[in-house]
Every structure is written in structure tokens, then in C-alpha cells.
Amino acid sequence: MHFLRWFFSLNRSFLISLSFVVLIAIGTALLSLPEITTTGKSLPLIDALFMATSASTVTGFAVINISTELNRYGQMIILLLYLIGAFGLMTITTIIGLGFGKSMDMRTRLLVQETLNQNESSDVGRILRQIVIYSFGLSIFGGVALTCILFEEYGPQALYLGFWHAISAFCNSGFDVFRTEAGMQAYATHLEINITLMILISLGGLGFAVMGDIANKRSWKKLRLHTKLVIATNAILYVVGALLFLALEYFNPGTIGKYELGDKILVSCFQSITTHSAGFATIDLTQMRDATFILFFILMFIGASPASCGGGFKTTTFAVLLLNSF
């Protein structure tokens, strides 16, 4: 009883941080099991901790090859970690509670409000409904689309790969489980896969409040200022990032120099969008020019939009600071 009183008296921001610590600890324990590897041997503790942290914080860094070193159980643990990390443990547990008919008390509402970066607690219920609708809807759309695209190459396994990568893209996690030596680089010029992933990454990094506002208003004039700012900032960053990447790497044979103009533009657009908030790579990043690394640092630092699946400094913060400087 005393522990519960102490727990619920904690600062909301601390509770949110603590939820990630708990998630990482559980993820580390699960990834340390020998049953989740293809070899039957446990991952080194430091590797399990790193992968759990990377997945839970939707970072996308990997110190192991997920497609070859983890079996389906291990891959599903990674998926669950970045799925929970993308939406927040508080948000997930609240949605599950609401699904079982439980109502939100004021403290829970405030916790979810802070997790989702909302100014008004009255918006929390609406945002949670939007999270469920858009997440399931877009994940199913992306999963079916990728399954159809990959079916000719992978057969029935395309269903697993399609939905795994659709969820990974929408959550902006950047993990892939393609069993090819080149990974995502094998599909650098595959138009359908690139477009599907770009749509999912963009929508996942846009923010649920923004998607809801667009769906409800369907008119630029009626959109909220926040929505207009997010759309404009993302569009500018995507276009500028793609153009700069294209210009910097145009003649680099280690990245896009070997491709035709159309493929160069496709790779440039994909890398601009994925670097912004997701983390997939369809090129060998080690072959990029130093100037391109600096461009990527800036895009990754800015990151996605508030109340979205992506992390980073946030597009609205960047836009407001830039506007204020003018």
C-alpha cells in the first residue's frame, strides 16, 4: 500500500521515463533467452541490452543481424518493443484498459497527455481513438501492399515480411529482416517498395493529431496552425533533404553514382524521408561524402513531429525557432 502511494505520487515525467526503463529491462531479459536465437545460444548481455534499448526508443541501431541471428520469436520481441516504444507504454496500457471498459482517471489522463505532448487533457480521448484507427488502418494497408509486392519473390513468407516492415516503417523504427546480404540495399531502386515505405514513414512521423485534423477538415484553410506548420515543415525538409543528397552524392559511385537519373531521384527521396525520422538505408552509408553525413546529422536531429511515432528535436520546435530567428 505504501509502495502504491509512493508510486502514484511520483512526477509524471519521471513515471514516463521509468516506463521506458521497465520496458528496456523486460526486453533485455527476453532477448537474453537462448530460445529466441537461430543458434540456440544466448545473446551477450550487452548486445541484448543494446537491442532492447534501440528498439524501445525507436532508434533503429542494431549490433546484430536481426534477420539471421534471431528467429521469429526474437524478431517478434523486437517488433513488440519498438511498437510499444513508438506509442509509449502509458498510451498502450491506457488503450488496453479502455478496450476492457475501464475509464481514465485524471492522473492517467494527465500521464497520457504528457506522453502525447498534448496541451489539453480533453483531447486525450480523441487522440487515443485516432491512434487506434490510424495505426491499425495504415499498418494493414502497408502490410497488404508489401505482401502483394513481395509475394512473387518470397511466396507465403511475404505475408510475414510485408506486415513486419509495414509496422517497422509506420513506427519509424528502421529495422528490417530481409534475408539478403545487402538487406534494404537490395531494394534501393524498387519503386513500389520505396513508395509504400515512404508513405508509411511520412504518416507515422506526421503525428496523430495532424492526421486527425486533416481527416476532419479536408481543407487547407480550415486546418489548425499546428497542422499547417507540421505539413509545411515536413514538406520543406523532405524536398531540401532530397535535393541536397542528390547534389552531394550524384557522382559518388559508392552510393547513387552508378544509377540512372530516375533511380538517383528515387533513392534521394527515400533517404531524405527515412533519415528524417525512420532509419532504413538503401545505400552503403559508409561510402557517403562527409558533407552528406552532416546533412544526415541535421535531418536526424530535427526528427519527426510531436505526438508521432518518431523521435528527435521535433519539426515544430525547429520551425518555431527558425521563424523566431527571422
Main β-sheet description:
none
Portion of residues in beta strands equals under 5%
| Structural class estimated from helices and strands | mainly alpha
What do the pLDDT scores average to?
84
User: Poorly predicted ranges (pLDDT <50, ≥5 residues)?
Assistant: none
Principal-axes shape call? globular
Q: What does this entry show, briefly?
A:
The longest helix is centred in the middle third of the chain and has 31 residues, at 124-154. This protein has 15 helices and no strands.
Task: Please explain how this structure is put together.
The protein has 326 residues and is an all-alpha fold. Helices cover 67% and strands 0% of the residues. Helix 2 crosses helix 3 (45-56). The model has no long low-confidence stretch (mean pLDDT 84).
Provide tags for this entry.
mainly alpha, globular, 326 residues
